[in-house]
Amino acid sequence: MRRDHARAEPTVARSVRSAGAIVLAVLCAGCERSTSEADPDQTAVSAGAPRVLPEHETGDTPEEHQMPTGEPHAHETTHDAGSNGRAPDTPPHHGPSETGAGGVGSPGPFGHDAGLSIPTVRPDPSPLAAEASELARSEDSSDHERLAGHLLDVSWLERLDSPELAQVASPVGLQLSLVLEEAAAEAPDVIDRLVTDPLYAEPGHRQIAIIRASAGVENPSKALQQFWRSQIDPEADELESTVQALVRNQSRPAMDLLAEALMSDSFDDNLVFWWFRGPMLERRQDAPLLMMTERLLESGRLSTPRRTALVESLFDYRPTRWYIATEQPPEPPSREKLREPAREILRSIADNALRSGLIEEARRARIEIEIGSTEP
After folding, report:
1. Residues 210, 206, 121, CA angle at the centre, nearest 5°?
2. How far apart are CA 218 and CA 32, in angstroms?
3. Rounded distance between C-alpha atoms, residue 92 and residue 180, angstroms
4. Scanning 32, 133, 248, 337, which has the fewest C-beta atoms within 10 Å of its C-beta?
């Protein structure tokens, strides 16, 4: 069975987990909480990026909390900043759009003037990609063997996407991504072959492409789970891409591994908050993700700041406080699209948050209005 969400494109780029990005996020936190002696115009993530608006300038306006997709008004949670464990409203580094192996926003070694047509959106399949996708859809195991052979053949891969293009294109724009997505949905045995091969273990566009495609594997094998786990590490090359794949995959093994990462002390709080407010926020009405979230909150193994930030990410939306204004921030789904059992799980999480002191009675009442009544 196909997984439609496997083809959804993540908004968050992999580069946010880098040491430089984390340092910048912390520096931005200091800028926002500093006095007016600091020049806010000097605060930027990169050259040419819009400055981060300090809290006294953004204020607490209704527009800041208004859901951009038809959501009801999202209000403040009850804790104040300080020793009570409230998650900071500091805008983390909002990762840029996915780019090729040449680097974030980089034209790569060939430059944008080298006559290359650089795809940044999902392309139409080339004849070679279409042929490979047919092999993935085949029920003949020998066709799957042929496809795996192609995908492990460097010369075939370079016919699929030229090395020059592969260095500069967004992963979503590669023909390889189309083939791997088809394999993930129709021939997961091919994916299992690839994730154990050094060709896809090396940092670069192939590793990124297979991690993204792995979100579409319905029943991840032990091999794929081990491949994911190898990237859930502060020093891993594709930590961010893997977190996004886990959020989108939503199988029980994927959710268990994601929960481990969210609890881990190996990751800075600001990075975990970004996962809450980025990839998880965009899927915050998906029942499998909500069930994992509820188990995590009830486990008692999540720190108070992370519990607070997680609850906020489920019921609030503060784009001017949570994100640096470098591009369109992540957006949550409309509450109009909320269905059972997700609504009932959200209601249970809100009840538990009230009992735990993460929200107050008034906020709990507003949440009930926001998520609506149970469908007849």
Report:
1. 80
2. 43
3. 32
4. 337
